[in-house]
Each structure stands twice: as structure tokens, then as C-alpha cells.
Specification:
globular; mainly alpha; Serine Threonine Protein Phosphatase 5, Tetratricopeptide repeat; about 150 residues; cytoplasm; repeat; Importin_beta; ARM-like; protein transport; single chain
Length: about 150
């Protein structure tokens, strides 16, 4: 991949994230059930299915199996990075789901550590790609629990 293509993709993702209408409060679900319109999904075929599979990813964050949680939080991170404005209405719910995985009492057990690591990574992707659409105080609350596990 040449340098121009990578820069173009990064710029496209940042523009898409900036196109969200307003910051989403933590836990807010407005627009969660609204399907992606065909017009919104033009030129981005993978995004037309977000409203179909994202609810499953968010629900799977509470699964008893650490491997299922790991896969679901990884998927949330991918959606945060590449979803642009289609992901914006789900930021609040995604933050709650990631918070639940990060704050589990057994988060650092060998069966759960990959889910924890991927949840922290996905939180970072939301902060990076949707920084203008999140409440910093709420993200700081989640990230402070991450640093509490490290030290």
C-alpha cells in the first residue's frame, strides 16, 4: 500500500467520525435501533450490516466464555475504527459493554486476559476515531480502572 492510500483512508475515517451530529452520552442509545439507510450504506457495503451484527457483538460482551467476549470486543474495535458515522449512535452502548469487560473481577485471569486486552484496545480506538463524540470524563472513569489493573 502506498503512502497516499493509507493517508486517504485515515482522512476518510476521520471525516466520517467528524460527521456525527453531536457527542453521544455514555449509555445513550438514541438511534441504536434505527437501521442504516441504503443511501448511507452506498459505497460501504460492510456498513449496511452494522445494525444486524453490532447488537450481537454488544450482547456477547456479557457472555460467560472469555473467548466469546474477546471476539466481541475485538469486533467492536474494528467497527469503531472503520464504522465512521454509522458507529456513532452505538458509542454509548459500546462504552458500557467495554466497561463491563474491563471491570470484571476476573478480568486478569488467564481465561479472560485476552478479552480485557482487546476491550482496552477497543476503548482506545473509540477515543481515537470518535474523540469529538465522547464524554471525556466517562472515558477517564473506564481508563482509570485499566490503569488500576496495571499497577
Amino acid at each position: 500500500m502506498d503512502q497516499h492510500t493509507g493517508a486517504g483512508r485515515r482522512e476518510e475515517r476521520q471525516k466520517a467520525a467528524a460527521s456525527c451530529s453531536r457527542p453521544i452520552a455514555w449509555g445513550e442509545t438514541s438511534g441504536h435501533s434505527a437501521p442504516v439507510s441504503r443511501r448511507q450504506a452506498e459505497g460501504m457495503p460492510h456498513k449496511r450490516y452494522y445494525d444486524t451484527y453490532l447488537p450481537f457483538l454488544l450482547e456477547a460482551c456479557n457472555d460467560v466464555d472469555g473467548y466469546v467476549r474477546q471476539a466481541s470486543v475485538y469486533g467492536i474495535g474494528v467497527c469503531a475504527e472503520f464504522g465512521g458515522s454509522v458507529f456513532c449512535p452505538l458509542i454509548g452502548v459500546a462504552l458500557i459493554s467495554l466497561n463491563n469487560v474491563i471491570k470484571r473481577a476476573d478480568a486478569l485471569n488467564s481465561d479472560n486476559i485476552m478479552a480485557y486486552d482487546n476491550a482496552v484496545s477497543s476503548l482506545g480506538k473509540i477515543c481515537h476515531f470518535h474523540r469529538s463524540n465522547i464524554n471525556a470524563a466517562q472515558v477517564c472513569e473506564i481508563s482509570s480502572s485499566c490503569s488500576a489493573h496495571v499497577f
